Amino acid sequence: MSENRANSSKVTLAENSTDSGVMLQQVLPFALLRGEAIVEKPQDLFIPPDALEVILEMFEGPLDLLLYLIRKQKFDILDLPISPITTQYMAYVDLMKDIKLELAAEYLVMASILAEIKSRLLLPKQAVEEDEGDPRAELVRKLQEYEVIKKAAENIDELPRLDRDNFIAKVELAENFVPKILNSQVDLAELVSALHGIIKRTKAYEHHHIQKESLSTRERMAHILAKLKNADKKQPYCDFSDLFTIKEGKSGVVVTFLAILELIKESLIECVQTKVYGEIRVCLPKQV
Amino acid sequence: MNPDKIRHKDIDDAKLKRLVEAALFIAEKPLSVQLLKRDFLIEYRVSNLRIRDIIIAIQADYKGRGVELNKVASGYRFQTPAELSEDLAHLYKEKAPKYSRAILETLALIAYKQPITRGEIEDIRGVAVSSNIIKTLSDRNWIKTVGQKEVPGRPVLYASTQEFLDYFSLTSLDQLPALMSMEDFSG
Amino acid sequence: MNPDKIRHKDIDDAKLKRLVEAALFIAEKPLSVQLLKRDFLIEYRVSNLRIRDIIIAIQADYKGRGVELNKVASGYRFQTPAELSEDLAHLYKEKAPKYSRAILETLALIAYKQPITRGEIEDIRGVAVSSNIIKTLSDRNWIKTVGQKEVPGRPVLYASTQEFLDYFSLTSLDQLPALMSMEDFSG
Fold first, then answer.
1. Residue A18 burial (CB < 10 Å; 0-12/13-18/19+)?
2. Which residues pair with B160 in a beta bridge?
3. Average pLDDT by stretches of 10, chain C with 187 residues
4. In angstroms, what separates the C-alpha of C154 from chain B's closest C-alpha?
5. Beta bridge partners of residue A101, listed in sequence order
């Protein structure tokens, strides 16, 4: 309904209208009022302005009003009798004007179109050129096109709708339901920028010598520690040679060796040799 | 992440059926086979065909029950059958919005004549189309813009959406009621 | 209105079951026998006992399915079974908040300076490292303990994991970007 009001085609009682009503001068066919019976209005019938407004607001525009008049009179839309239709249309328009309804411009445009078609039909036949065709054709086409859509809109209105004809089944989740939390995403650049942040903040950081080359050593250090941690509780050590993987080649051996030296320096591991030329065993420091 | 890496677990038909059934009931919107796979079955190795078979089995299970599994434009959803509408509707009558003829006619034009410009709608209806009508239809997600017409002013072209079809329980535009034919005009 | 006057129509068990089932599925809240009668069965002559029997029959129908009919404080409602919660959780994926600077710095130090103790991280960062940070990174399987440092208190040593490398698509730690050269921060 509110859309109707905003529509420029609306016909509304002018504000501050002092008209208490209107005495109608001629018979006009009246519309279905909210689906109720057709009001065939006697000549002297007094129609309250509110009711008129409701009736006139039922029309979606000049095409709708024309279609109503045609259907009401059981006229053939394909052989449109322009003269009576124009008369009736004008009566409605005059009525709207009479009661100071704010008349959409489209109604007046249609009035002039009808008047023009009527005058062209009144011209002597020979004055109309052959190829000009029926002056009503364009209007008839528009009326048909509009009626198709009017009917389609009515059909759509009757389709089963959600919350009116169909209802969606809703089911609650179990009490133990916990939504899955997606892990936050981290960019490698963020990680590096975080570290740069620390470096900038910490003057003493120069001692820490973080460089690309040392990383493989540090990684190996972590590997060795993890290996020792996971070693059998009864034999909590690793043979020195087991820490090396020959497949890694010379550089791999160097990295492992540097890692072991660094771990010894930081007192993170101990190396023991039980006999001369015996296997060197690497273990975690004895617990104090 | 590689989805093939995730989809590794096997699932038997009984479990798959329970899961699909539950998913369809708790989802906020209709679920397509693709959505079911992506949102509920990501951990499982299961083919589209198998999901479709399971859906057909569930549809059969719910024949003649209080709810049925229907296909609408954007997927499958459980809803009450038409036969029960009358008994269920009276509680909800006030909730269902009514739409003005202006809105319905504009919607009909967009649905049947899409893509269409506002000017073309005004031409056929014979009156101006207020911005409120377009806004109401857009807010409901029933219409969307699908480009601009290459004529002076490059007006926006409107089309209907899947939500529009879902709302009216249709699977596609060709399920819309047929338009009046020329014979309907005589008399 | 006199309810006796309204409740006049007979309803057979099959229809009653469909209607009760549909009502329970579309209701916004759990439905008690009284609410079912008042809101959905007002037109029918039906006893509380009969409604209760129907509910028991529906509960039996849904045993082992994707949803079940449960009694809660204010009435009956359909719910997903507890066993399916984990699988269904996928639909309601929530994005965790972005990691804080503190988390990223701690992770960076563990990656570049492993094996490293919490104390050493605190020394470098100049602020305490909360247990939450360590927990977040451990839960994510990005860090692990690789032993204890032989200093007083024997603090745990942290290192990065294979998952950490996998996440960042690295094959080994030396693929981590090189830090700025020493000159850059010698001033």
1. exposed
2. B143
3. 62 93 93 92 90 96 94 92 87 74 92 91 88 92 90 91 88 76 38
4. 39
5. A13
